[in-house]
């Protein structure tokens, strides 16, 4: 099994980042607008609707407020994966900023380059989205 671990430095409080990550039914709004069109949530099953009409079906395994960690497993998707699970975990930094760690495990290993490229692209979208939302909120509270 292959593991990819991506650390995303965010100039946002860990509370703000965690609030976005744990909102599993608003993935398309709070983390990756444009990359995902819509999110459907039925119990612990989340379906991500992609802009081209494809979908990815995931099982939400855990949402842990104490550890600020969310875990999911892909059940059906567009790639020929034998196995795919991932987690997001938020860690505080000293300056009221945070690090979002995205860990993903998958088979087959041959998909490593494709999945690494996807993780890199999606990480940029998440960073921009989370920081923009925090900036907008702070401007409204001033």
TrEMBL record:
InterPro entries: Polyketide_cyclase/dehydratase, START-like_dom_sf. It comes from the Bacteria. Signal peptide: none annotated. It holds the Pfam family Polyketide_cyc2. This is Polyketide cyclase. It comes from Paenibacillus oryzisoli. The lineage of its organism: Bacteria, Bacillati, Bacillota, Bacilli, Bacillales.
């Amino acid at each position: 099994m292959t593991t990819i671990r991506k650390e995303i430095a965010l100039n946002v409080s860990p509370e703000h980042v965690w609030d976005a990550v744990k909102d599993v039914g608003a993935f398309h709004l709070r983390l990756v607008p444009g990359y995902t069109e819509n999110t459907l949530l039925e119990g612990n099953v989340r379906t991500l609707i992609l802009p081209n009409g494809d979908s990815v079906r995931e099982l939400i395994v855990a949402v842990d407020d104490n550890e600020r960690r969310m875990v999911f497993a892909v059940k059906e998707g567009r790639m020929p994966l034998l196995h795919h699970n991932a987690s997001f975990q938020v860690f505080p930094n000293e300056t009221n900023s945070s690090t979002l760690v995205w860990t993903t495990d998958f088979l087959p290993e041959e998909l490593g380059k494709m999945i690494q490229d996807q993780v890199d692209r999606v990480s940029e979208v998440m960073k921009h989205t989370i920081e923009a939302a925090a900036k907008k909120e702070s401007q409204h509270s001033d």
